Amino acid sequence: MAKGWLRALRQTSALADRIEVVGLVDIDENVARERAREFEIAPLIGTDLATVLKATKADFLFDVVPPSARKATVLTGLSLGCHVLSEKPMATSIEDARELIAAAERAARIHAIVQNRRFISGVRRIRAFLESGVLGELTGFHCDFFLAPHFGGFREQMEHPLLLDMAIHTFDAARFMADKVPLAVYAQEANPKGSWYAHGAAANAIFEFSDGVIFTYRGSWCAEGAPTSWEAAWRFIGTRGSLLWDGAERFEARVVASEGKFLNDLKIVSVPEEPAAELTHGHASVIAEFLAAVNEGRRPETDGTDNVRSLAMVFAAIESAAARARVEISQ
Question: In this protein, which residues make up the domain named GFO/IDH/MocA-like oxidoreductase (predicted)?
């Protein structure tokens, strides 16, 4: 993921002109040196984060470590005066997430999370379309996520790889698009036959959202043969019609054209282009929003105080799957 971040900085002129990479830290110094050569930069290289931060007096820390190292990394950055932008998930437990929020408050610094799915065209476009009321009131929405990536490395050994490492993206996008509050969940987790993951690579979940809205999730990271988009495939149902999104470029929306029949007549409606194109460039948009929030003295859209709500969906689903029971997310 470090490559993705560095690529976003290099390829986005508005960021390249504002950000200088002054340090690269990795437990394997050779990896950091290779990244510096690859991206033609000359930062201070080191294996100890605190040492490099003190030497460079950096303003920001971009945290791209595996989840198990996140807490220590973020706390070090905040303690040395950095604003911190972290990869997801925000933490490996709700308790750790609360600790990071409290640490950011004490340090008067921002700790935000790279929920880059919020900053893609389709997600912003759907949020605006649902807010327009064309479908009436949202009553339910549903998501399928089926892929078969062979990552190697930590993901294939970690517990809850789908729910914790990937579904956080999907759940956060769901919460953002629907603009509803998650209240409770019933979930099931499994590791299907043939899985190359050590733990649960598949999951199903039913979420209860505010205003009576139901969200269902079906997902697998070991589903060969018929892949969805990385953004998943979605169905949104309102009181006047429905919207389908394939997670890529295809949007299909139909609403009731006339009533009084066994099956009402439908008409196709267009889904307008995204209203704010500058917010649809993935990692680059997350970083730009982060910088703008720091400069303006406000919380960014993916600030930890907001992202903890998406993380709560993940851990509630994990708890529900383990207990085989409905779990209230507010708890």
Answer: 123-243
